[in-house]
Amino acid sequence: MTATVDGKAATNPLRAGLQTDRISDPCSVVFFGASGDLFKRMLLPAMYSLRVRGILPNDFSIVGFSRSKYSDDQFRQYCKEQLDQFSTPDAKPQGAIWDDFAKRLSYISAEFDDHNAYGALAKRLNDNDANLGTKGNRLFYLSTPPSLFPKIIDQLKEADLNPHQGQEGWARIIVEKPFGTDLDSARELQQTVDRVFPESAVYRIDHYLGKEPVQDIMALRFANTIFEPVWNRNYVDSVQITAAEQLGVELRGGYYDNAGALRDMIQNHVMNLLALVAMEPPAGRDADAIRAEKAKVLSAIEPPAVADVPAMSARGQYGAGAINGKAVQAYRQEPDVNPNSNTETFAAVKLTIENWRWAGVPFYLRSGKRLAKKTSEIAVTFKPIPHRIYGETTDTIEPNVLVMKIQPEEGVAMRFSAKVPGPKSHIRSVFMDFNYGTGFGVQSPPAYERLIGDAMRGDQTLFTRWDAVERAWEIVMPVLEVWENTKDFTFPNYASGSEGPDVSFKLFPGWRPL
Asked: Nearest 5°: phi and psi at 322?
């Protein structure tokens, strides 16, 4: 279909909106772990793109903090090299924009528990306030291994860099996932955070929430009259949320073998999608109203009893196979993976929400690596028609499905039944399909751009509140404990390039194919 906006050919409203959406507060952004993979691939390009698009405030600075040995000039050169490699073609480091950006870059080389280094960081930030006009506003981004989070947070307090009375400007902190590795560690980390930063200054980042189609879930529901009246147990048969990857663990074997698909994806990314799909209409668009409704959804999900875990969950581990015609090795042969690993690379769970809207509707969540295709989507399957009066007896009338496509395609598709042209009344399923790129004439900006910009603005809407994080851990912990304490002798139980383990299809026979 040809996408239009209000019946007219789509122009470029998204890009135009970004160009005028300048952040008003000047500030310094401190990236802990500034020599790491996340910084060079995602965070640095996001910051530079925000500058190129005219969204950053006029007065800003970026301070890198990491163990690698760089001077300020060496760090600037390092950043230029990474931007040459990882930024988009329209945001390459060159000309006056890069020259201005580069002079606002500086670096501190130190161990993350070095008290003296945080004193040097405080002095650097004060110098930036005086020389670059950042006015005492500080955003701290923890892009380090999670084990370092408590050390950094405690050192920020010791250096008087946390929010406190009489402070000029504001101080906020972005915490990367995972927020803890289980319920106990999450609560322990929260206690550390609580001692230093109030909840209003804490931004627990989940990059899925920064993706444009995820943000559009609420607009789809609450800006259209055709969906919300049927968005309930009376019309919806099931909801399936899928986050599937073709990639294996790549060079993350050491981390992943201590995490697994349930921790790495279901507990955070997929659970956040569930909350957005199932939430009640918020009282307003402010962060508190939206996050409160999301938390209510998770509070209505009862954690499974240990005895029920086998009936509501399935796990798998990929073996050798082929992806796009290329042979790939099994998980247990990946670098830094235990050759007898019991870690799942595929996880699926069935959850129910015990409230008036959703009672009795199953929510199927699945995520896995080395699957047949890369896709993240939410599929809402509606109940079958109550009485058949149309179509030939040999025709199969499939239920309507609304699919919200998150990646790699971004859009919305709807399956419905239509009559095949001709004298017979044959019925076939057809799709209406909307794509963001063609519909609005612009590619959606990367998720980290939106999320970093929102943190600089002080908008917590797309960040996860502590009570929601805690409840998500409470929901998955019984499954996690059973899996960790039970050896699965069927591993590996699905071939790379397949749709996952057979046990998941037996347990959840209504899975949509990938």
From this structure: -135, 135
Residues 13, 17, 19: CA angle, nearest 5 degrees: 120
φ, ψ for residue 54 (rounded to 5)? 75, 25
pLDDT at residue 397, rounded to an integer: 77
Q: What is the DSSP string of 315-369?
A: EE-EEEEEETTEEE--GGGSTT--TT----SEEEEEEE--STTTTT-EEEEEEES
On the question of pLDDT at 391 being above 90, the answer is no
Percent of the chain scoring above 70 in pLDDT:
94
Mean pLDDT, to the nearest integer, of 300-314?
96
The residue among 81, 84, 134 whose CA lies nearest residue 104 is 134
Cβ contacts of 144-149, under 8 Å, gap ≥ 24: 144/32, 144/33, 144/36, 144/112, 144/176, 145/33, 146/176, 146/178, 146/179, 146/180, 146/181, 146/189, 148/32, 148/33, 148/112, 149/175, 149/189, 149/192
Residues 406-431: tens digit of each pLDDT: 988 889 999 887 777 877 777 777 88
Among candidate residues 469, 477, 481, the one with its CA nearest the CA of residue 298: 469
Q: How far apart are CA 456 and CA 30, in angstroms?
A: 12
CATH superfamily placement of domain 209-507: Dihydrodipicolinate Reductase; domain 2 (3.30.360.10)
Distances (CA, A) of 78 to 96, 106, 316, 393: 18, 11, 40, 67
> Which residues does 75 contact at the CB level (< 8 Å), separation at least 6?
34, 64, 105, 106, 107
374-388 pLDDT, tens per residue? 999 999 999 988 876
Whether residue 363 contacts residue 239, with contact meaning beta carbons closer than 8 Å, is answered with yes
Q: From the candidates 115, 207, 269, 387, give the one annotated as an active-site residue.
A: 269
Helix (H, G, I), strand (E, B) or coil at 213: helix
Confidence of residue 301 (pLDDT cuts 50, 70, 90): very high
Q: Which of 368, 359, 350 is nearest to 475 (CA)?
A: 350
Helices and strands (H, E) in the chain, number of each type: 18, 19
In the CATH scheme, what is the code of domain 25-205? Answer: 3.40.50.720
- pLDDT greater at residue 372 or residue 446: 372
Whether the CB-CB separation of 170 and 458 falls below 8 Å is answered with yes
Whether residue 165 is predicted with pLDDT greater than 70 in this model: the reply is no
Residue 304 pLDDT class (50, 70, 90 cuts): very high
Structural domain boundaries of the chain? Answer: 25-205, 209-507
269 is catalytic: yes
Which contiguous run of DSSP H or E holds residue 103? helix 95-103
